[in-house]
UniProtKB/TrEMBL annotation:
The keyword Cell membrane appears for this protein: yes
Transmembrane segments: 40-60
GO cellular component: basolateral plasma membrane
Protein name: FXYD domain-containing ion transport regulator
Coiled coil: none
GO BP of this protein: potassium ion transmembrane transport; regulation of monoatomic ion transport; sodium ion transport
Main localization category: membrane
Signal peptide positions on this chain: 1-20
Cellular location(s): Basolateral cell membrane
Gene3D superfamilies named among the record's database cross-references: Single helix bin
Quaternary structure and partners: Regulatory subunit of the sodium/potassium-transporting ATPase which is composed of a catalytic alpha subunit, a non-catalytic beta subunit and a regulatory subunit. The regulatory subunit, a member of the FXYD protein family, modulates the enzymatic activity in a tissue- and isoform-specific way by changing affinities of the Na+/K+-ATPase toward Na(+), K(+) or ATP.
Length: 89
């Protein structure tokens, strides 16, 4: 039963690939994409977003609000494990 199910799923998953290899492309179809233009547009948008992110990061307008208050922890914390306290039984 497991083999039959697996074979059926693989067959159903492969059916769209058989239809997609149709060499006759209808350029008037709403599902026809010019992949090179789409890729070029995506690279341009990605580059512009990257440059904008770098400019925002370097502009100094987005500063971390680092609070220089003293930590509630003592300056010198005691170690959790001191030499000789841990045993290796």
């Amino acid at each position: 039963m497991k083999r039959v199910t697996r074979a059926l799923l693989l067959t159903l998953a492969g059916l769209p690939a058989l239809e997609a290899n149709d060499l006759v492309a209808d350029k008037d179809s709403p599902f026809y994409y010019d992949w090179e233009s789409l890729q070029l547009g995506g690279m341009i948008v990605g580059g512009l977003l990257c440059i904008a992110g770098i400019l925002i990061a370097l502009s100094g307008k987005c500063k971390c609000k680092y609070n220089k208050k003293h930590s509630p922890l003592p300056e010198r914390a005691t170690p959790l494990i001191t030499p000789g306290s841990a045993s290796t039984c």
